[in-house]
Predict the structure of pantothenate kinase.
Amino acid sequence: MIFLRYVVRSYSHNRSRKSGPLCIFRFNASVFHGKGMPWFGMDIGGTLTKCAYFETKSANPDLHHQETELIKIVKKYFKENPRKGVAGQADIRLQMDNVSIGGRTGSVHFIRFPTSLMDDFFAIAKKHQLGKFISALGATGGGAYKFEERFATELNIKFAKFDEMDTLLNGMRLVVKMNRPKEVYYWYNPHPDEQNCNPPQEKDHLSRKEYDLNDPYPFVLVNIGSGVSILAVYGPHNYKRISGSSLGGGTFLGLCCLLTGCTTFEEAIALAAKGDHRKVDKLVRDIYGGDYKKFGLPGDLVASSFGNMNLPDHRLNISKFDLARATLVTITNNIGNIALMWAVNLKISRVVFVGNFLRVNPISAKLLGHAMSFWSRGTLEALFLEHEVRCLLLHLLKHYIIGSS
Amino acid sequence: MIFLRYVVRSYSHNRSRKSGPLCIFRFNASVFHGKGMPWFGMDIGGTLTKCAYFETKSANPDLHHQETELIKIVKKYFKENPRKGVAGQADIRLQMDNVSIGGRTGSVHFIRFPTSLMDDFFAIAKKHQLGKFISALGATGGGAYKFEERFATELNIKFAKFDEMDTLLNGMRLVVKMNRPKEVYYWYNPHPDEQNCNPPQEKDHLSRKEYDLNDPYPFVLVNIGSGVSILAVYGPHNYKRISGSSLGGGTFLGLCCLLTGCTTFEEAIALAAKGDHRKVDKLVRDIYGGDYKKFGLPGDLVASSFGNMNLPDHRLNISKFDLARATLVTITNNIGNIALMWAVNLKISRVVFVGNFLRVNPISAKLLGHAMSFWSRGTLEALFLEHEVRCLLLHLLKHYIIGSS
């Protein structure tokens, strides 16, 4: 039974901390007491586990003590984690302060850690008896299925499981509403005549523009995590998974680790930022000597990703930066290609790209934006969200609290 | 003006050499004298240059001398080429003996060499004055544009250029007609209940079956060379390029060279044959702990290609065989995925796969065959050609002789 009503107020990422608290959910206090604090949501993906929790000073001294203990454990986990480079970390940029939930004010924190370190998480959670403080948490992602039993038996924590795609779509609506019209943006090309050229190496001429997603339906949603899921979304509760690809963020990172010796996504992106994929790939002009005019394929277009790497002379002439860039361009273009096909075939003009692959990765976002516009001759719009990482977790918290009350 | 008529007779690869000669083209002798012998056709692709030439004993002693000289040069080229592993070589398996062309009997030879060695080809051709023996040749592929001027100025050989896709499609018709009904085949699954499982690692349970492509239209043609071109073919002269991908045979070979240290396509395929991609990729069950039932994704499905390679422990546990296999499976599945999408969206039930990527590569052919059937629930047919490498070159020879006479 749902006792709650929730109110979403306009929220700007840069709003003054002096303004009143942001009220995401307002609800019956009994729910609050039933759940214990802090509320905890986990999206356990193939590569990354993303968490959100609400930290607040409770008016009730007992509750406050419990909450503080738990927060200590959570923080300790990230400090104790010994593996450099793959340790979990707080997404401080995403933190939402001065938020009011159920009449209390506090902060929503966002944390991520590699799912491969789940064993470490369990060890620390057991050591600090996490199950004493929270008995349940909202969970989604593949790991909500994979780890459910372990959380129950080893930590005595139950999962309130939520479907990943439902949660993502509802979370998108929540975040767009909170931050409209600033939340959604696209990459604008101020020189449309350059549309006639292949997406160039440097996309710095593109500028970011707000896009008011007032009436979003229908749109194609491309969720790029370890792999890729593509949905056709026709209404708030009307969508279907139309396609997917196993070539996603996990492929980019895995190949980069093998090819360059890097160890983290951030490192791989930083390498890619300094590289030139054209030394690695075979371009249309490498094969045709120029454009392939019959089919309108420009000379700068990649004809064969990594297509020069069978040649010893070319292999000697490349750096790890070039390899990382080529990997990023290969994966990004392939995703763009598949998304474009579906959008064209379904006659849907808006494609929204989300997922952790796009985090700290403006190269891919710009490439997708430019390529979608180029190949559709300007008829398709590639859209991105400012706070898309928050989407799923915020809704997960909300759904957890409301849906299971 | 065309003086010629040509006759295509049924031809079987294994037909007895004692049977009468195969007559591919019958034509006016004046054309023969105008062209010089042997007729030479080149398909200059991004990675490989494929050649066909007709070797025969001429009744005319002068002509015979010229032809013999040229054949010597051609053979010398392949012997002189010093680079081990990337040297050109005759496709002896494809050789067509006892063929009658214009009243003369001889053999059609097929040769390939890496396009990257074109400089070596020019050096030897100049040394042996190739231009003294032939003044023109039929050419297609991107290199027909890229190298046209060099052939003219350095070797005094003119190109009769033919569009690659026209030539390929006409060549397919020619070869299918010559060898019907044996030419076209598919991979048959004798255990259709296994359709419910993800395409397994080993596809040895699949058996090859003839497919009588009597009325071929419409079909989707997927041409996998260095990159991939996808055509929708509605009739003999009615087709359009609907899509493509830069992730093709060149990507497989390039990545394998980087990841395993191999140097040739054959070596890369041999490595892949011994590997297990499941050690490299992240599977649905690695993320979900089993199937992802909501979307009908089986646990064995690859969720993220190379998705385990960001983890040091996993990297220690793999071999170059596994890496080659994962690369092959990644590229093959991506091509199958894109081809499937187009076939489904265009409501075309037959997909014909051709291109040098499929040469000595039954793993990919079986994977494509099984995956197309699996994902379409048996409604799509993945078809292959027995002598598809011949298609384009045979038609190129034919078109060159007839079309420019």
In short: Chain A touches chain B through 67 residues (CB under 8 Å). The domain at 184-385 of chain A is CATH 3.30.420.40 (Nucleotidyltransferase; domain 5). The first strand of chain A starts at residue 22 and ends at 25.
